Amino acid sequence: MIEGLMNLEAVRVPAGGGRLPAGGGRRPDGRRYEVVDGRLLVTGVQPPAHQAAVVGLMVRLKEACPADQLVAVGSLDFRPTRRLSLRPDLLVCRLADAGPQYVQHASLAVEVLSPTTRITDVVLKRDLYEQSGVPSYWLLDPTHQELTILHLTPTGYTCEAVVQSDDAFTTTHPFPVRLCPAELTG
User: What parts of the chain have a pLDDT lower than 50?
Assistant: First the structure.
């Protein structure tokens, strides 16, 4: 089902008139396309603060990432089922699990909050990642320099930490890494 919905080759990019490539995720028009139970979610182009936070966190994660893990920045869909295809801002998975376009198992999903994605990221995606068994879900808010780290337990996500501004926190999930929101978003 997702393959059919995510194959947007016949859809024209309004600005450029060119065709979209097969697969999910970000397109030449800068939008992000995701599928939830047959519904297409489209997210517009994000502000510079959002992109800077993604890059800051990517650098920190890649520095700490073990060789058998992969840090993907908007390049892999997370497809745990045929009816769900999400494109987190950052995704960590085992290198062996990564396919050319998607991964079925992730150890970490990260969403960077922006005014247009806040409700989707905090409510809908949290629930979807939790139901899909993603062990760690992080929410990075560049506007408030805040990082929320959630860890999956048998009863659902629990908050491991809410890290503010210049405070630092070292997590062990999915691997040990020191995080400071001001450093990630500055």
Answer: 1-2, 4-26
